[in-house]
Backbone:
């Protein structure tokens, strides 16, 4: 349930209510809103005597949260969350373009893409140092050396870094280099990892598992949020269906639906859904038109030589063209890029 405080409630009254919630063996999470604070109450609230809470000074009303996810729900917070990113935010009027190679392969390759995507208007560099590969014989990423390269590229270009963290044992190490921690589709329900990310003071991109429902995605976000980190971006990257014309099926209906039921920013990764370069630009445009708050796009200076995901990588020139087209779509839906 949520306790909605009166607009004029004092901070002492909010603290008093939170203390009473805590005293009942439940967990209060104050959510400051525009002009009005709500307190999300986590735990089993079946035995709560609502009238007693309603009588506390400063309380306006008490509303049950019908969904299984609580902190991620729009019932708790009406306005879309703004996740901080390098002095800007994801979730505001500007659509955040995060672009870069699938994997860090060398300093030269990563620097070149970073320079090019930055010049075209990207707000962050995406690139994996630790790669979750289907086959253990495939390139696994440069690991710590890759993180060092990413740090150097950020130092030179100023672009914040989005990179994947594969296990809870790597959270501290990756967080020391990354600006945004990515949870890959294969790890969406790795609850130890999600809890560990709740204790980090860095935004998280949480990718939807290829066989996960939207509710499961939101409950995964809930793990990160209830562990203390509110800065979660949800990422739609395609799911498994009977269709085989693309690598995965990109459900843009999920984008519109999540925007309705959750206040978390939603970003779309058309590259992994498509698996093929020519399909990436139309899917990017559709995602922006559909309300996505950001995009995650793979770009490589020489896709033919890419060690991972070459067929879906845009060239730097393709990316320039895409950005020009996307600006028009963004403008048409009242946003910027
Ligand atoms: C990636 O972003 O490079 C990646 C491995 O993505 P996903 O987890 O969506 O497959
Ligand atoms: Mn990839």
Residues:
């Amino acid at each position: 349930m949520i306790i909605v405080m009166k607009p004029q409630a004092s901070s002492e009254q909010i603290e008093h209510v939170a203390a009473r919630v805590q005293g009942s063996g439940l967990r209060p999470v104050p959510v400051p809103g525009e002009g009005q604070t709500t307190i999300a109450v986590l735990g089993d609230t079946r035995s709560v005597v609502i009238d007693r809470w309603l009588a506390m000074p400063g309380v306006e009303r008490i509303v049950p949260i019908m969904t299984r996810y609580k902190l991620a729900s729009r019932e708790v917070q009406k306005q879309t969350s703004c996740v901080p990113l390098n002095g800007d935010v994801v979730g505001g009027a500007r659509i955040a373009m995060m672009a870069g190679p699938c994997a860090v392969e060398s300093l030269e390759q990563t620097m070149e893409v970073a320079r090019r995507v930055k010049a075209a208007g990207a707000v962050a560099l995406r690139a994996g140092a630790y790669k979750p590969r289907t086959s253990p014989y495939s390139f696994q990423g440069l690991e710590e050396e890759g993180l060092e390269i990413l740090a150097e590229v950020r130092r030179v270009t100023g672009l914040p870094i989005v990179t994947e963290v594969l296990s809870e044992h790597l959270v501290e190490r990756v967080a020391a280099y990354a600006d945004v921690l990515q949870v890959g589709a294969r790890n969406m329900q790795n609850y130890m990892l999600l809890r560990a990310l709740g204790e980090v003071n860095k935004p998280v991109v949480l990718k939807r598992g290829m066989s996960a429902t939207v509710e499961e995605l939101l409950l995964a976000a809930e793990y990160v949020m209830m562990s203390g980190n509110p800065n979660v971006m949800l990422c739609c990257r395609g799911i498994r269906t009977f269709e085989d014309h693309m690598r995965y099926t990109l459900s843009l209906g999920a984008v519109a639906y999540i925007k309705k039921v959750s206040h978390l920013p939603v970003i779309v990764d058309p590259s992994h859904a498509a698996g093929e370069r020519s399909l990436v630009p139309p899917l990017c445009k559709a995602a922006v038109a559909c309300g996505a708050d950001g995009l995650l796009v793979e770009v490589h200076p020489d896709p033919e030589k890419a060690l991972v995901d070459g067929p879906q990588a845009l060239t730097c020139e393709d990316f320039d063209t895409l950005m020009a087209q996307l600006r028009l779509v963004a403008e048409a839906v009242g946003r910027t890029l």
